[in-house]
Write a structure and sequence with these properties.
Helix content of chain B: under 10%
Number of helices of chain A: 0
CATH topology of one domain in chain A: Immunoglobulin-like
CATH superfamily of one domain in chain A: Immunoglobulins
Largest sheet of chain B: 6 strands, mixed
Strand content of chain A: over 45%
Helix content of chain A: under 10%
Number of helices of chain B: 0
CATH architecture of chain B: Sandwich
Number of strands of chain B: 12
Distance between the termini of chain A: 36 Å
Shape of chain A: globular
CATH class of chain B: Mainly Beta
Largest sheet of chain A: 7 strands, mixed
Structural class of chain B: mainly beta
Number of strands of chain A: 11
Order of helices and strands of chain A: EEEEEEEEEEE
Order of helices and strands of chain B: EEEEEEEEEEEE
Strand content of chain B: over 45%
Largest interface: A-B, 27 and 21 residues
Oligomer: heterodimer
Radius of gyration of chain A: 13 Å
Chain lengths: 112, 116
C-alpha cells in the first residue's frame, strides 16, 4: 500500500540553526501539506502546496518557514532559524483529487 | 471561525465495554468530517470519514460515527473496545474544497485508555 514517508524520524537541533524536514508523498498525489503537533496539543495546519506553489498557509507559517518540491518526489519544510517553540512533531500529508489526506509517521523536532 | 471541540480530554473504558467519543464542530456550512487515530509514536491513521449521504458511517477496526446536523456533532462509537484501541483520537473537519487540496482542522484529541 502506498504511503507517505518522512525523514528523519527524530531531529535534534540547536536554537538558531536551520533545519530541513523531508517528505516523500504518495507518487500520484497532487496536494501536499505540512501540519505540526506541539506536545500535548492538537494537530495544526501549517501550509498546503499545489502546482509548485503555496495554496494556503496559516498564521503559524511565518517568514522563517518555507516549503519546496525540489524534484518530482520530495516535499520539504525548511525552518530557517529554529526557536525553542518550534519543538513539535511535524506531519507531512498528501492527497489526490477527491481523495482523503494520507499522513506520514511524522518527524519529531527537538530544539535545544 | 471554524472550530472543532472534543470535550473529553481523557477517557478510560474497560475492555469489552462500549465507547463513544464526542466531537462537535462550528462551521459556516456542513463540512466534511473525519476521525483519525494516533498510537504512541505513530502517525495519523484515518478511521472513517463523512462527506455526504448516509449519516451513519462505518470505518476500520469496527468503529462507526454518526453525523447529526442538528447538533453539529460527529461522535465516534465502538460497541466493544479492545486493549489495542488505546490511543489518541482526533476529530477533524474540512470544507468541501478539501477534495481540491483543502486543509483539515483538528480537535484537541481524546486519549483513550483501556483497562483489563
Amino acid at each position: 500500500e502506498p504511503e507517505v514517508t518522512q525523514t528523519p524520524s527524530h531531529q535534534v537541533t540547536q536554537m538558531g540553526q536551520e533545519v530541513i524536514l523531508r517528505c516523500v508523498p504518495i507518487s500520484n498525489h497532487l496536494y501536499f501539506y505540512w501540519y505540526r503537533q506541539i506536545l500535548g496539543q492538537k494537530v495544526e495546519f501549517l501550509v498546503s502546496f499545489y502546482n509548485n506553489e503555496i495554496s494556503e498557509k496559516s498564521e503559524i507559517f511565518d517568514d522563517q518557514f518555507s516549503v519546496e518540491r525540489p524534484d518530482g518526489s520530495n516535499f520539504t519544510l525548511k525552518i530557517r532559524s529554529t526557536k525553542l517553540e518550534d519543538s513539535a512533531m511535524y506531519f507531512c500529508a498528501s492527497s489526490g483529487l477527491n481523495t482523503e489526506a494520507f499522513f506520514g509517521q511524522g518527524t519529531r523536532l527537538t530544539v535545544v | 471561525a471554524q472550530s472543532v471541540t472534543q470535550p473529553d480530554i481523557h477517557i478510560t473504558v474497560s475492555e469489552g465495554a462500549s465507547l463513544e467519543l464526542r466531537c462537535n464542530y462550528s462551521y459556516g456550512a456542513t463540512p466534511y468530517l473525519f476521525w483519525y487515530v494516533q498510537s504512541p509514536g505513530q502517525g495519523l491513521q484515518l478511521l472513517l470519514k463523512y462527506f455526504s449521504g448516509d449519516t451513519l458511517v462505518q470505518g476500520i477496526k469496527g468503529f462507526e460515527a454518526e453525523f447529526k446536523r442538528s447538533q453539529s456533532s460527529f461522535n465516534l462509537r465502538k460497541p466493544s473496545v479492545h486493549w489495542s484501541d488505546a490511543a489518541e483520537y482526533f476529530c477533524a473537519v474540512a470544507l468541501p474544497i478539501y477534495n481540491q487540496g483543502g486543509k483539515l482542522i483538528f480537535g484537541q484529541g481524546t486519549e483513550l485508555s483501556v483497562k483489563p
